[in-house]
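Exercise 4. Each item below gives a protein and its sequence. For each, produce the structure-token representation.

Item: Protein phosphatase 2C like domain containing 1 (Chelonoidis abingdonii).
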Amino acid sequence: MDTNKLLLQRQKVISRLIKLSKYTERDKQKIDCSLELLKNKSKGTSYFNVDNIDDSSGYLKKVSNSLIKALAVCQDKNSTWRADMEDTFIVLDNFGNRSDTCFLGLFDGYHGVFAAETVSAELPLLFLDQLSQTDSSYKVSRNEEQILDSFATVIKGNYRDQEKVFSSKTDSDKTTKPNTYEWIHKTYAKSFWRMDRLLRLGRNEVSKVRWSSCTAVTCLVERISNEKSIKEQEETMLLENNTNNSANPSESSTGILHIANIGNIHAVLCKNGKSYCLTKEHSTSNSKERDRILQNGGNISTNEPKGLVEGLIRATRGLGHHGDPKLKKSVIPVPYTISVPTDDSCQFLILASNGLWEVLDKNEVVILTLRMFTSYLETYAQREEISMHKYQYSIVPYKDYLCSSMDINDLQDRIQLWYFNKESASGSQEGSEELKRFDDDTKAYLSNNRGSHSLIASKGEINSATFYDSAANYISKQLVKTALAAGSRDNITILSQFYQLQQ
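Answer:
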């Protein structure tokens, strides 16, 4: 990349935006810092050179769940803006000693990593304890029972009475249809409620003013062993917070995703080439959350575009904050929960911390992932000397829409500009057309290509698991790099999972 051209581009962008009064000085600083980062990180190699990926921050997680083809995690401290990595994650296979069941969690720490570390270790255990009380197929081991028994001195009778009332509250957004998985949603609610109580112990906390906290997104992935009428029970739940997208009910469900989130950390599902946000935004940008805080006597400062709760944070829900009574009154430990059926039209799920979502919206992340998968496939095929017409795969079609590295670089440039004009870009026609194109292509491919998932090369057969592992790892890392290039100022953690599709 020519540094002089990059500097000239920066000067032109800044000059253009200075003339627009709607951009604050903070926005201009973000543009400048983002381009400085690009200049420092730029290298004279192709964006899609697979061998140039740094392995230090990427993790491949092997799970025995037959729904998941590959699962990868990538983290970056974002040392330009953050001194410490405060994100944590956990992947538990055979959760509750159940086959084809796994638990995924991502926790975004604030004011220290202690709360995030504690929650990642203890929230799954609290959740499993609640699950096992209703569903005997979930088993708690002896060691886990001992840990749970040690919590009994903290979670006493009066606290249990309070949580009983809390967990039986009805969701105002609940559909009129019966919800088969309401008990799991209540289980999530109790688990978060108890986890917040345990954080009051202040273990490992060092500050005498304000203890650490975290936001969270968790996902319980279950395989369905028999063909129930899942679509009648859950079809409305998938779209209850996605009014712009629509999908046909699935003909046969293969599994269920039980998701809970608290704060501004999200999970996005790609289904038939469309993006579906399975979480809710609990931050000052949510008008309902703002109203709740103000009506309860809280304060939202005006030193940011959407304000900060008590002048400190954007997240309006979270776990922790026990050292600050005023902040704790406004930031509540109440999760949003949803259960979503998965079938052979579900392609991948992205869980990511705020470091990604503060610079890219959900549609952009899905578009990037689809494009990067296609380009990775092309590069992988060339490297392995595989003829492209012999491939049969399940994510996106290869005909006519194999994106070159230049296409991706162009898309990245557009995303950097969208970031600074996000309100107008979120519903842009260009983004809608991208999604429609990939949706149409994917439907056409899925209807015409139901063959084997194996990758056939002239030198022999290549295990498709190896390919999907590499692709998931690569895409997670490239999403992190894209977030850095777009000007993220937070820790970034991305957990991506690609699904095992039916043959």
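Check: The first helix runs from residue 3 to 18.
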